[in-house]
Amino acid sequence: MDIDMIKEKLSNFSKAREWDKFHSPKNVSMAMSVEVAELVEIFQWLSEEESRNLDSDQIRCVKEEIADISIYILTMCMKLDIDLEEAVLSKIQLNEKKHPAFGNKKKRAE
Question: Is residue 10 within 8 Å of residue 71, measured between CB atoms?
Answer without folding.
Answer: yes
